Amino acid sequence: MAFTLPELPYAMDALEPFISARTLEFHHGKHHQAYVNNVNNLIPGTPFEHATLEEIILKADGGIFNNGAQVFNHTFYFEQFSPFGCREPLGALKDALDRDFGSIAAFTDHFNKAAATLFGSGWAWLVVNIDGKLEIVQTSNAGCPLRDGKKPLLTCDVWEHAYYLDKQNLRPKYIEDFWKVLDWKVISLRFGA
Ligand code: MN
């Protein structure tokens, strides 16, 4: 069973002006597609030929891990946006953010710093750690918190390909606009799952 590229759950121009159609055409249509193609080309004849992405993330190394994790990470990233989404955390998730970071403002500040200061290519994540606490983590390149037994809730892709067409070198501007298209309903569903 080959992996396939999931369709975006919104139109290419739905996140404008914060994330442009041109960025999505390249980020989803070229980069995400390439990770799908690469992992499909790498797994035949290996122990991962029939593995799930989660099994690849937990056990693979090298190119199979890098491309498989990037398929998971990008699907997780694209699915959390909506043009009509809920723009603030609510309910049990808001309570947990207040509990573990002190306030939503403190959480946002901490997350923004994690995304802005990650050196090179990678991802900033909000996760539930093994103690059930919310935590912000950075991963380099294709890194995924599932590998460390943490449950991801939210992620910001800070590879330059995520923002360079729209923002050039201004990663902080991309992070600022990221919140304007994030749908906290999706994050709440992940938290409750
Ligand atoms: Mn990316």
Give an overview of the whole structure.
- With 193 residues, the protein is mostly helical.
- It folds into two domains: 21-78, Orthogonal Bundle (Helix Hairpins), CATH 1.10.287.990; 91-192, Iron/manganese superoxide dismutase, C-terminal domain (minor pseudopilin epsh fold), CATH 3.55.40.
- Helix content is 49%, strand content 11%.
- The chain has eight helices and three strands; from the N terminus they run αααααβββααα.
- Strands 2-1-3 form a three-stranded antiparallel β-sheet, with helices on both faces.
- A hairpin with a 5-residue loop joins β1 (122-128) and β2 (134-140).
- The relative contact order is 0.16.
- The model has no long low-confidence stretch (mean pLDDT 97).
- Bound molecules: manganese (II) ion (MN).
- Manganese (II) ion (MN) binds at residues 27, 31, 74, 157, 159, 161-162.
